[in-house]
Amino acid sequence: QVRLVESGGGVVQTGDSLRLSCASSLRTFDNYAMGWFRRAPGKEREFVATVNWNGRMTDTADSVKGRFTISRDNTENAMYLQMNSLKPEDTAVYYCAAKFGISDYFARAEYEYNYWGQGTQVTVSS
What we know:
- Helices cover 0% and strands 48% of the residues.
- It is an all-beta fold and 126 residues long.
- The strands form two sheets. Strands 2, 4, 5, 6, 9, 10 and 11 form a seven-stranded mixed β-sheet that branches. A four-stranded antiparallel β-sheet has the order 1-3-8-7, with no helix packed on it.
- It is globular and about 40 Å long.
- The termini are far apart.
C-alpha cells in the first residue's frame, strides 16, 4: 500500500517561513512526478507546485511564485516545500501527491495524480 505522509505544518505569523516534507513509501519514487496542493477553508483544492521525476524541473502557481520552492530528494524518497514570506491567504491544508511518469510535463490537475497524502495544516496569523 502506497503511503504519502506530510509533515511540517503549524501555526506561524505573517512573514514567517515553514518547510513541509512529504515522505513516500513508493518503491520507485523516481518514476513519479510529485506535487503540492492546498485547500483553504471554504475553497476547492488548488495546485501549488510540482517537480518532475529527477528534480530538475519545477512549476509553481503564480500565487506563490517567488515565495515557495519545491524540491525532492530521491535518495530519501522525500519531497519538500519551502514556504517563505507566508501570508494569511496561505492558510490551508497542504497535500502532497504523486503522479506516475518520467517526463518533463507539468501536471497541475488533481485527476492526473495517482496517490495522495492526508494533508498537513498550515495556519498563518496576521
